[in-house]
Every structure is written in structure tokens, then in C-alpha cells.
Amino acid sequence: MDNMNISYKLPKRILTPTGGFLKEYTHSLNPYVGCSFACSYCYVRQSPIGLFRNQEWGTWVDVKQEVKEKIKTEIHNFKKRGKEVTIFMSSSTDPYQPIEYQEKITRSLLEGMVATPPDFLFIQTRSPIITRDIDLLVQLKDRLRISMTVETDNESVRKRFSPKTPPIAARLKAIRKLREHHLPVQVAIAPILPFSERFPETISQLVNRIVVDDFFTGDGSNGKRTERLNIKSLYEEDQLANWYGENAHLFAIEQLKNSFSPEQIFISKEGFLPF
Ligand code: SF4
Question: Any idea which UniProt keywords this protein has (predicted)?
Fold first, then answer.
């Protein structure tokens, strides 16, 4: 967390009405603005959050404070009016990025949701810090799906594309721990990065649901944001062009089929929907 610009904010509201890619949810929930994982391919770099800030994406984080009572009140107010509340956490940050370790904002939101549960909560993360909150997650498990991103099993590929994210082995260990507590976990290969022949078998021993998402269906702009970030060049340097392009998901799915049945494999948005 050295050299990070950290600011503290008191948001008026914590739940955000959704649209676009997330329109099947009623709300998105971002405990932070900004993300220190700083993935090279992060589509938020090309969204207003990333573009209209005069600081490089990945070097700043705004911490949303005093959110536990807010989320309880907001969920309560929707439910009181007979409305459904389905929440995607998070659409433009990682709720378990390193600062969560000390700030515990995501944890306080979970505490609020245990007290006043939404109809459904989807948690998207790349971080093993999530295992710290198993005590709360088990209380929400009937209305929860956890999606752990594991884009590849190749550490040198991970370091090339997202050097500040947790190592693959740590993510796999976290999935194992979550599964030991019977929590519903899927693996998200999102975006698809080059992986080994052993990878499908490795993850099939941990989960029975997998979602693949490439840059063309998953960046919210049919690949335009990703093109502006020139991610293609990272693949070309290593002659990995098969793994990049509009058919990359088909290429990846062919390999996954050896370890997963077709009904266990989800493509892009369908793997992120509420149930
Ligand atoms: S973890 Fe997610 S939000 Fe954070 S930089 Fe990576 S892709 Fe972006």
C-alpha cells in the first residue's frame, strides 16, 4: 500500500441503481472507489471513474466510511416498499483489495447485510482476504454467490498482466477454504489469459461452475475499451494470439470441456446473473 493516495469519504448512499451489463441486478455495491490491484486490462481505466481523475488508475483509493447503518437502512427501505434487492459487489473496484485488510469496509457491509439481508448478493473478487469473512458469508449463503477470478494458472502471465494481484496459488487456496464451509463459489476466467492444459482439471477439483469472459463481451464496450488500452500487444509479444480476439472464449471452452460438462460452463454475462 506504499505510495497509494488514500482518501476518506462519507457517501450519501451506498447502493447504486444498475444499468447496462448489470441491469439484471437492482443495485451495485462498491465499498471503495479506485482499486490498488491496478490490472492492466481493467475496463474501469476507460470509464468515467478512471478517466476523469487526474491520477493514474491503481494509485488511489477512496474509502467509503460509516456504511453499515446506511446499507441496512437502504435495504430496509426498498423491502418495506415490496421491492426486490439484488446486489452486485463490486462493479468497479475489488471489495477485498489490500486496504480492506485494515479498513474492513466490506466486512462492515456484510455485517449490515447479515442484519438486513438483500434477496441476493454476488461477490466478485480476486483476493484471498475474503476468507477472513467466512463467519459472515455462511450466514448469507442461501442468497449468495462468490465469484473468484482466476484468469490463468501461469504466474508469469499473471505478473505480466496484473502484477499487483494475489498469486494464483493463494486464490486457489482461498477457494478451497470457502468450499470447505460449503459456500457457493464459482471460478471466473475473466478475462481469459493463456492457461496450461492442467488448469481445467485443477479448478474442476475445486468448483463445479465456471464462467469465461473475454475482452469483447466483458469490457462493456464490445472490446473498444480494451483496444484503447492496447492489451493486444501483451499477447502478441508472446505469440499468444489464439487467446485474444472475438473467438478466444471458444478456444478456452474447448479446453474446459475435458473437465467440465457443458451445463457447468457459463459464458460472459450469463455467469454473473442473480439466481
Ligand atoms: S481487480 Fe478488478 S477493479 Fe481492480 S484493477 Fe483489477 S480488474 Fe480493475
Answer: Iron, Iron-sulfur, Metal-binding
